[in-house]
Each structure stands twice: as C-alpha cells, then as structure tokens.
Amino acid sequence: MKAHVLDGKAFAAKLRVTIAGHVAALHQAQGIVPGLAVVLVGEDPASQVYVRSKGKMTREVGMQSFEHRLPDTTSEADLLALIAQLNADPAVHGILVQLPLPGHLNSDLVINSIDPAKDVDGFHISNVGLLGTGQKAMVPCTPLGCLMLLRDHHGSLAGKHAVVIGRSNIVGKPMAQLLLGDSCTVTIAHSRTADLAAMVRQADIVVAAVGRAQMVPGDWIKPGATVVDVGINRIATDDGGTRLVGDVDYDSCAAVAGAIAPVPGGVGPMTIACLLANTVTACCRANGLAEPAGLTV
Ligand SMILES: Nc1nc2c(c(=O)[nH]1)N[C@@H](CN(C=O)c1ccc(C(=O)N[C@@H](CCC(=O)O)C(=O)O)cc1)CN2
C-alpha cells in the first residue's frame, strides 16, 4: 500500500485564495485592510527566509505587511518598546515575533507583552489558557494547519487515538489540545517516553514534532494510520549539499501509513496560510465583525 499524500502546499494555496476573498470583502464593505506586523531580531538564515515569505504572502492576499528587522544586539527594553508601539497601532491587527530569539532575550516575557487580541501566533499565556479551556482563542498556526489537514482527510476525528511526539509550547502542547477538542484520545509522548515505538504503534494518528531528523521509522506505524510530520531538519547529502527532511523516515512510513503529510510540502506551507487566516480573524474580532467560517477552530 502506498499512502495518500496530504498535500499541504495545495491546501495552503486554496486557503490563501479564500483569505484573499475575505480581505477584499472586508475592504469593500468596511473600508478595513487587515495588517500584520512581523518582527525579526538577528540574522538567523532560516528565520530570514520565513519572514520574507510571510511578508510576500501577506501582500499577495491584499493585507498590509509591516516588517521590523532589528539587529541581534537589540536590548529587551527596545524590543518591548516596539511591541508596545505595535499594540497601540490601529492599523496592526496581528503581531508576530519570529522565533527563536537571540539568547539574551527572554522569549516568554516578549511574547507575553503582545496584546493577546493581536497575538496571531497564539503563544501568549492568555491564548494558551483559552485554548486549554476550550474557549475562543488565537490558535497557534502550525497545529491549526495540521488540524485542517486531518479534518479534510478524515472528516470527524472523534474516537481516534492520536499520539503527539513532542511537548513544545509551539506545536506539541497546542496540537494535543486541538485533538482533544475534536474528541480524540490523546497521548503526548517525547524523547523520554518509555518504549516510544510501542506507544506510536497504537496510534491512528501520529503527529511527529520532536525536532530529530527521520527519527520515526515505518515499523513504528500501525498499518493504515495517518502520519503528520512537523519536523524541519536540514541534513547533508552525499554530493556535499543539504536537503530538508522531517521527523519521520518518509519512505518507510509512507509504505505502511494510510496517509502522510510530507516534508517539504505538508505542514510547513500551512503554517503561513494559517498565520494569514489568524490575522483576518483578529481583524474581524477587533472590529466587532462576524468571523469568516473555516479560518479557525
Ligand atoms: N513566531 C513563530 N516562529 C516560528 C514559527 C511560528 O509559527 N511562529 N514556526 C517555525 C518557522 N516557520 C514559521 O515561522 C515556518 C517553518 C516552515 C515553513 C515552510 O513553509 N516550510 C516548507 C519548506 C521551506 C524550506 O524549504 O525551507 C515546507 O515544509 O514545505 C513555513 C514557516 C519556527 N519559528
């Protein structure tokens, strides 16, 4: 059996077309243009690529993009002052601080200084609490993208056993909350889980977000299970170059799974599309307007 491929690239492209329609309608009916501010501190090469892509796609769907690039010597006080300015700016509906931040900056402090209503990453402690208690929140983009792919493939997820490998605040924990919200039975596993292979073999849905290249082999996967790979790992190739791989060993997992989200082209593109979706949602909430259906949970 060869697994069905969950094509995040195609899904994200369609979602961006839908978002562009909502942005145009907001402009026409209300004279409002949603605005997204992205803050990059330092020169991490991968972060620079993601931030460039975010700006480009923001503009492509018709929203305003505000980019702030700060040197890696930026003090915490200066970064907090910029966030305070963006919090107060009515043209800015969404604020995102690209992670990771340079080591001298306290990420928790910085994230929690963002107005929760503009926290389109869904990382602010208020949004974490709202999501965890089943209330209306801003939902982290990568887990939201995974959930959209899973719902699109399965319809209802109720009763399925989902094993999330990884316990990060960005992916693992919010992913588990979202799957619980869809009535899955959820196990959060991690590098210190006893007999991880046996645990993963019980899963109808595996979400791998552990940050270790090709860690999950095909013989950990229950035949027919759905595998969502969140990993982004660059590994060396024999010809001296590099290539991107996920946290699962694609070929052996695809041979056993019923469906699989690949790397690249699976969850990654969904992350940015969901960021744009969250910005439209934040803009509608800020203006007391009905939220378009299908952009969040
Ligand atoms: N503030 C945030 N920081 C980070 C987040 C986040 O959601 N918020 N997530 C990641 C990085 N990220 C977005 O910021 C991101 C990662 C990957 C992709 C993507 O499209 N990947 C492509 C491959 C791209 C490549 O070739 O390198 C794919 O998987 O197909 C988009 C966004 C950490 N920081």
UniProtKB/TrEMBL annotation:
Residues 6-121 form the Tetrahydrofolate dehydrogenase/cyclohydrolase catalytic domain. One of its GO terms (molecular function) is methenyltetrahydrofolate cyclohydrolase activity. Pfam families: THF_DHG_CYH (PF00763), THF_DHG_CYH_C (PF02882). It comes from the Bacteria. Keywords: Amino-acid biosynthesis, Histidine biosynthesis, Hydrolase, Methionine biosynthesis, Multifunctional enzyme, NADP, One-carbon metabolism, Oxidoreductase, Purine biosynthesis. GO terms for biological process: L-histidine biosynthetic process; methionine biosynthetic process; purine nucleotide biosynthetic process; tetrahydrofolate interconversion. Pathway: One-carbon metabolism; tetrahydrofolate interconversion. NADP(+) binds at residues 166-168, 232. This is Bifunctional protein FolD. PANTHER family: C-1-TETRAHYDROFOLATE SYNTHASE, CYTOPLASMIC, C-1-TETRAHYDROFOLATE SYNTHASE, CYTOPLASMIC-RELATED. GO terms for cellular component: cytosol. The lineage of its organism: Bacteria, Pseudomonadati, Pseudomonadota, Alphaproteobacteria, Rhodobacterales. Its EC number is 1.5.1.5, 3.5.4.9. Belongs to the tetrahydrofolate dehydrogenase/cyclohydrolase family. It comes from Yoonia vestfoldensis. InterPro entries: Aminoacid_DH-like_N_sf, NAD(P)-bd_dom_sf, THF_DH/CycHdrlase, THF_DH/CycHdrlase_cat_dom, THF_DH/CycHdrlase_CS, THF_DH/CycHdrlase_NAD-bd_dom. Catalyzes the oxidation of 5,10-methylenetetrahydrofolate to 5,10-methenyltetrahydrofolate and then the hydrolysis of 5,10-methenyltetrahydrofolate to 10-formyltetrahydrofolate. It catalyses: (6R)-5,10-methenyltetrahydrofolate + H2O = (6R)-10-formyltetrahydrofolate + H(+); (6R)-5,10-methylene-5,6,7,8-tetrahydrofolate + NADP(+) = (6R)-5,10-methenyltetrahydrofolate + NADPH. Residues 140-285 form the Tetrahydrofolate dehydrogenase/cyclohydrolase NAD(P)-binding domain. PROSITE patterns: THF_DHG_CYH_1 (PS00766), THF_DHG_CYH_2 (PS00767). Homodimer.
